[in-house]
Design goal:
- The protein is α+β, with helices and mostly antiparallel strands and 100 residues long.
- The chain has helices spanning 26-32, 58-72, 76-81, 83-99, and strands spanning 39-45, 48-54.
- The protein has two domains: 1-55, Pemi-like Protein 1, Chain: D (Ribbon); 58-99, no CATH class.
- The longest helix is centred in the last third of the chain and has 17 residues, at 83-99.
Length: 100
């Protein structure tokens, strides 16, 4: 069972070992459902380090995109056919305001 960590704050001390490695305390891993092999995001904000679980969604998004293409009857060739035209439109739109 997951612990609701949004409303409480706890402090944990961890020791940095060789090559900058440290262990996320088991209590935190359990509360955030972090498992072996998971990826976390580390963000430095001034003198503070924030770790956040990072969910890899590439496969999920790819599957949704393929399903949408199939639903609409669009092939990869269809998408690539208009790519040069779309790139030109985006280029003109982006640089039009800079040249005006």
């Amino acid at each position: 069972m997951f612990t609701d960590t949004r409303s409480k704050s706890e402090k944990f001390s961890v020791q940095v070992r060789q090559r900058g490695q440290f262990t996320i305390p088991q209590k935190v891993r359990d509360a955030l459902a972090i498992e072996d092999g998971d990826i976390v995001t580390l963000v430095q904000i001034g003198d503070v380090i924030v770790l956040s679980p990072k969910v890899l969604r590439g496969q999920e998004l790819g599957d949704k995109f393929v399903a949408l293409m199939e639903e609409e009857g669009v092939t990869l060739a269809d998408l690539l056919e208009d790519l040069p035209k779309i790139r030109e439109e985006i280029y003109r739109e982006k640089y039009k305001s800079q040249n005006s």
